[in-house]
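TA notes, week 10

Several of you asked for a full example with nothing omitted. So below is the full record: structure tokens for the whole chain, then the designed sequence directly under it. When grading your own attempts, check the secondary structure regions first.
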């Protein structure tokens, strides 16, 4: 099997009985940079069978890529991010610059925590918008999603001005840095705390590609982690219900 695939990919592939079908998905997963969730989606939608019977095989493969970016975003975004490797103890007073320096001094561990496909581009990159200069904290590029990822660090609770500033950064990189074949930049606000209602109302229905996620500087207990994940899931489900009721 190709070495580019993870153990999670292999768990999906091993379920396939037909050798030729399994080989097809192996090749496409590597060629198209599918995450394991995307691989499972393609298997479940019978891509191989549709490919075999279609006279226009290119069209089938092109159609299969629809929705891929959204699935890749699910794999890129986490909540919470765990930064225990940075050496910043729980409840210790530190500045955003201290957090940034600690993460960059452990860049390998930081990239692993961010997930697959991330490459470091710059920190405090100076950009000029109008007559003012701005300095986004961290710039990455994700080769799987084929886009820039802009990260700002917040040690306190997220406020609406932080969200508006990140949207400005995303728009700037979209207009000045994107090239043909790339996708729109993503902005991630990493904060110690956030009010989901403030985030939702500030972003509204028209703001795209800006996300807020919590981080922890210590390894949480099992109970703490379960509560965080449960809270995030409940907020996500509530948002989906509200969207559905307005349709």
């Amino acid at each position: 099997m190709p070495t580019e695939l993870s153990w999670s990919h292999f768990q999906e592939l091993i379920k396939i009985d037909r050798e030729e079908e399994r080989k097809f998905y192996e090749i496409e997963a590597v060629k198209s940079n599918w995450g394991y969730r995307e691989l499972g989606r393609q298997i479940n939608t019978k891509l191989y069978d549709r490919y075999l019977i279609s006279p226009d095989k290119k069209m089938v493969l092109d159609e299969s890529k629809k929705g891929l970016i959204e699935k890749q975003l699910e794999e890129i975004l986490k909540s919470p991010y765990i930064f225990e490797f940075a050496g910043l103890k729980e409840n210790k007073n530190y500045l955003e610059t201290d957090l940034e320096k600690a993460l960059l001094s452990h860049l390998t561990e930081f990239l692993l925590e961010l997930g697959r496909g991330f490459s470091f581009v710059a920190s405090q990159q100076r950009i000029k918008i109008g007559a003012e200069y701005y300095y986004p904290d961290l710039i990455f590029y994700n080769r799987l999603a084929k886009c820039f990822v802009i990260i700002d660090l917040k040690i306190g609770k997220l406020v609406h001005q932080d969200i508006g500033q990140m949207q400005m950064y995303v728009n700037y990189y979209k207009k000045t840095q994107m090239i043909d074949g790339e996708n729109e930049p993503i902005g991630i606000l990493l904060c110690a705390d956030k009010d989901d209602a403030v985030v939702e109302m500030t972003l509204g229905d028209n703001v795209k590609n800006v996300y807020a996620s919590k981080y922890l500087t210590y390894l949480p207990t099992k109970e703490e982690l379960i509560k965080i994940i449960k809270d995030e899931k409940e907020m996500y489900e509530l948002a989906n219900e509200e969207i559905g009721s307005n349709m």
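Residues 222-245 form the longest helix (24 residues). Use that as a sanity check on your answer.
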